[in-house]
Amino acid sequence: AQKVTQAQTEISVVEKEDVTLDCVYxxxxxxxxLFWYKQPPSGELVFLIRxxxxxxxxxxxxxxxxxxxxxxxxxxFTITASQVVDSAVYFCALSEAYLxxxxxxxxxxxxxVTVRA
Amino acid sequence: DxxxxxxxxxxxxxxxxxxxxxxxQHMGHxxxxxxxxxxxxxxxxxxxxxxxxxxxNESVPSRFSxxxxxxxxxxxxxxxxxxxxxxxxxxxxxxRDQSYGYTFGSGTxxxxx
Lengths: 117, 113
Description:
The complex is a heterodimer. Chain A has strands at residues 4-5, 10-14, 19-21, 24-25, 33-39, 46-52, 60-61, 64-69, 74-79, 88-99, 102-107, 111-116. By secondary structure, chain A is mainly β. In chain A, strands 2, 5, 6, 10, 11 and 12 form a six-stranded mixed β-sheet that branches. In chain A, a hairpin with a 4-residue loop joins strand 8 (64-69) and strand 9. By secondary structure, chain B is mainly β. In chain B, strands 2, 4, 5, 6, 9, 10 and 11 form a seven-stranded mixed β-sheet that branches. In chain B, strands 1-3-8-7 form a four-stranded antiparallel β-sheet, with no helix packed on it. Chains A and B meet through strand 5, strand 6, strand 10 and strand 11 of A and strand 5, strand 9 and strand 10 of B.
């Protein structure tokens, strides 16, 4: 069963527009971690943000911000004032325990973001 | 050292070849992972090692054989692969308590001919 759903397959914006990426997750655990990763065409996975299930405080870090709502199992991510270098595939991911203190990471299908100059 | 290093970066192998992918980290992370990523798809978990012991095998075919010789090193031995095994293979590590999340290597792009 899909544990992480990213409903948006592709998003195309013009530079300086804001981009919001949606993520809905499913878990029975009370302790879990949520991540956003960026994968540019070169292929490496770049860590962007992490949130644990006990911290619903939403924050801003530079041009990145996120909205974590446990009530709706959503973990949305916003890039403010997008730049061409933001063009990449963005993955939402869920880390859950499969044994006590052992975790594994599951990814959503990814959203391809294209920022046009 | 806050990196996961994967070698080689690119590999082309025939279906009768035997090759190995290597992953190394020196962050003291006790969990290490192999993921497979096909084009335009998300990474899919293959194997998890925790404290150098295999703890998850996601029903991966036996032509893929993982090995964890020590806490810093993770290998993936490849034998008799099929063209459909061509993909980006990503290694990752994490501290067991998830305090710092997962660090991924830059991957090995494998082509089976």
